[in-house]
Automatic annotation (TrEMBL):
HAMAP family, per database record: GlcN6P_deamin
Molecular function via GO: glucosamine-6-phosphate deaminase activity
Primary role: Catalyzes the reversible isomerization-deamination of glucosamine 6-phosphate (GlcN6P) to form fructose 6-phosphate (Fru6P) and ammonium ion.
Pathway(s) it belongs to: Amino-sugar metabolism; N-acetylneuraminate degradation; D-fructose 6-phosphate from N-acetylneuraminate: step 5/5
Every Glucosamine/galactosamine-6-phosphate isomerase domain range: 21-244
UniProt name for this protein: Glucosamine-6-phosphate deaminase
Keywords: Carbohydrate metabolism, Hydrolase, Plasmid
The organism's taxonomic lineage, starting at the top: Bacteria, Pseudomonadati, Bacteroidota, Cytophagia, Cytophagales
Protein's organism: Hymenobacter volaticus
Active site: 84 (proton acceptor), 157 (proton acceptor), 162 (for ring-opening step)
Enzyme Commission number(s): 3.5.99.6
InterPro entries in the record: Glc/Gal-6P_isomerase, GlcN6P_deaminase-like, GlcNAc_PI_deacetylase-related, Glucosamine6P_isomerase, LmbE-like_dom_sf, NagB/RpiA_transferase-like
Family: Belongs to the glucosamine/galactosamine-6-phosphate isomerase family. NagB subfamily.
Pfam families reported for this sequence: Glucosamine_iso, PIG-L
Catalytic activity: alpha-D-glucosamine 6-phosphate + H2O = beta-D-fructose 6-phosphate + NH4(+)
């Protein structure tokens, strides 16, 4: 789809550059920083950089390290000031920004230690004010910041300047917004452990920088980015103050850009080159905006909705309505494995073979049932040979106390049977001792990791039994990239891809289901999907069965496909929804409260049901049949 858009659109009040993926954006920003450092070097001057932590700048730091190692970029003339630090915080704690900066950048370059400045989270509170004044003075004494790198929080914070911060604010101690605390919980394991306060440069400090680069990656940032770039300047979104700065660049990937008007509703910005995809998006948008089913939209509605250009091209509303309505109707099927002996020209799946081998990849041990439990049950009920492949052990998401409980069980069982009691006592003591002294965020011992993996494996097996998946069709892949014992994972490796290749060759499926979380640049789901893409790439052209294999992408617990993207919509009856809920309940270690709940307070089964109800409601609003719930899929052509 090519859209003619006008970057000078009145909607955008900050210059935005959109990259295909975060790595490309990060490289371009790193080059710009390197350029600044070199030009300062030539003049015999220092380059004064304001630096950020968090996930956003990691790619930039990675490229700067590469430039240092491979292209001789020196940081000897660089002085840095970090935006912020949690308070209180000891520098040697895993979550400290001192630790982060050294691990991600400083340990790998030739910066002079005395040139590094990071707010000190160890100070007694009565010293903080004086310290903050001194921090400002130090920046001034270095001639001010040449360039400030920023991420953006979902509250719209820059640094830790939460909503309510004034444009003139200086370095100070602040309270963190509850949303920021929820987002930080992933680094602290639990929300309760996140410090409530932080030291941060002020908005005023940031605004004094001569140049500012704001980074945003991933769909999670899309909404706040749109408000920052297109909204009014307001202390409710502190990042919007950047609109008053003369030299800002906003660098984003295509997912963070999703809510910008030129991307989301390009017809509001200028002329469009209309293809089927864009027409479908526009008509669905109009139907929801006008609160009218598609088939009731009139020429007037198209004109009032800024779509007269599309109307002129199509002739009349009726032609557009019926075309889009039919396309959506054809996505609905109660036969996710294809309807045997039927005309399948307008159906999402093929009629033959009547009984298919279906392979469901599940990144964590519960994604299958959470995301497509209703469809899985249907596939089994309709007689297909359903396989489930659990890609990772998911051991990280098990509470310590559960590990301890199962260790007690194992010991009790050994004692009861009087088998291997001595060994078990030793192992049990080891587990108890380790857990007693485990520090916040510390990696589990190998034994504890093993117990946690077994817990999740048992739950997945139970859910499969409940759904009727044959025992020999349940596969545990334990992909190595995941096995770090930490939130941070290894990059995708050869062994990971080979594991996927092996299982594909073993099963030779007619259809594959995979978690299609394309929008999250960092998550485990994305890595698991990349492994599948890489494996399919290797087999393509070599394996005949692959020519006749469909790949369906489902969405994880966090989000659903946009209705205009859906290519297969599987209706779920109230009874099926209840069975799906029970299958999810088999994952007891994830119930009530999960180790990684993300920023959603609902349990997984609730999120999943809400999502499936919402899709059904959307179909209903567009004027299609009213269902209880719908699971949605997009087909990926490879
Ligand atoms: C970090 C900082 C914060 C982060 C923001 C986004 O030093 O000041 O403003 O930039 O919270 O965090 P990530 O990049 O982790 O999404």
């Amino acid at each position: 789809m090519e859209v003619l858009h006008y970057p000078e659109t009145t909607f955008e009040k900050l210059p935005v550059t959109i990259f295909e993926d975060p790595a490309e954006g990060a490289v371009s920003v790193a080059y710009e920083i390197a350029e600044l450092i070199r030009s300062k070097q030539e003049k015999g001057e220092q380059a004064v950089l304001g630096l950020a932590t968090g996930s956003s700048p990691i790619g930039v730091y990675k490229e700067l390290i590469r430039l240092h190692r491979e292209e001789g970029l020196s940081f000897a003339n660089v002085v840095t000031f970090n935006l912020d630090e949690y308070y209180p915080m000891q520098p040697d704690e895993l979550q400290s920004y001192v630790h982060f900066m050294h691990e991600q950048l400083f340990n790998h370059i030739d910066i002079l230690p005395e040139n590094i400045h990071i707010p000190d989270g160890t100070l007694p509170v009565e010293k903080v004010k004086e310290y903050c004044l001194a921090y400002e003075q130090q920046i001034k004494a270095c001639g001010g910041l040449d360039l400030q790198l920023l991420g953006i929080g979902r509250t719209g914070h820059i640094g830790f300047n939460e909503p309510g911060s004034s444009i003139n604010s200086a370095t100070r101690l602040v309270k963190l917004d509850p949303l920021t605390i929820t987002d930080a919980a992933k680094d602290f394991i639990k929300e309760e452990y996140v410090p409530l306060r932080a030291l941060t440069m002020g908005v005023g400090t940031i605004m004094k920088a001569r140049q500012i680069i704001l980074l945003a990656w991933g769909e999670g940032k899309a909404k706040i980015l749109q408000e920052t770039v297109e909204g009014k300047i307001s202390d409710e979104v502190p990042a919007s103050f950047l609109q008053q700065h003369p030299h800002v660049q906003v660098v984003v990937d295509k997912w963070a850009a999703l809510e910008l008007t030129r991307i989301k509703t390009p017809w509001l910005v200028g002329m469009c080159l209309w293809d089927d995809n864009l027409i479908r998006r526009a008509v669905i948008w109009l139907s929801l905006k006008m609160h009218k089913p598609i088939l009731k939209l009139t020429d007037e509605d198209y004109k009032d909705g800024s779509l007269s250009d599309l109307l002129a091209e199509a002739g009349n509303a009726y032609a557009l309505n019926i075309k889009v309505f039919n396309t959506i109707q054809h996505t609905i099927t109660g036969w996710p494995g294809g309807k045997p002996n039927s005309n399948d020209t307008q159906r999402p799946e093929r009629a033959a073979p009547a009984l298919k081998r279906s392979l469901i990849f599940s990144p964590h041990p519960d994604d299958d049932v959470i995301s497509m439990g209703g469809t899985l049950l249907r596939l089994v009920d309709q007689g297909h040979d359903v396989h489930v492949a659990y890609q990772t052990s998911g051991n990280l998401a098990v509470f310590d106390d559960d590990a301890r409980r199962y260790a007690d069980f194992a010991l009790g069982f050994a004692e009861k049977l009087n088998v291997g009691v001595e060994t078990m006592q030793q192992q049990h003591a080891e587990v108890v001792e380790f857990l007693k002294h485990k520090k916040l965020g510390e990696e589990d011992s190998a034994l504890v990791q093993e117990i946690k993996a077994l817990i999740r494996r048992g739950e997945a097996a139970a859910a499969c039994r409940f759904c009727g998946v044959k025992e020999q069709n349940v596969h545990f892949m334990n992909m190595p990239f995941y096995e770090t014992g930490q939130v941070k994972k290894k990059p995708l490796g050869e062994a990971d891809i080979q594991a996927v290749v092996d299982i594909l060759q073993e099963i030779q499926p007619h259809q594959i289901f995979a978690a299609g979380d394309l929008r999250d640049p960092h998550g485990t789901h994305r890595v698991c999907l990349d492994a599948i893409f890489a494996a399919l790439g290797r087999l393509k052209g070599k394996e005949a069965w692959l020519d006749d294999c469909y790949l369906w992408l489902y969405r994880g617990a966090w989000q659903e496909w946009d209705v205009e993207e859906i290519e297969m919509a599987v209706p779920i009856s109230p009874e099926e929804l209840m069975r799906k809920r029970k299958a999810i309940f088999k994952h007891q270690s994830q119930k009530d409260s999960a180790v990684f709940p993300g920023n959603d307070k609902r349990e997984f089964w609730q999120r999943s049901e809400d999502r499936n109800h919402a899709t059904a409601k959307l179909y209903d609003q567009l004027g299609l049949t009213e269902y209880e719930a719908i699971e949605a899929f997009v087909r990926h052509r490879f």
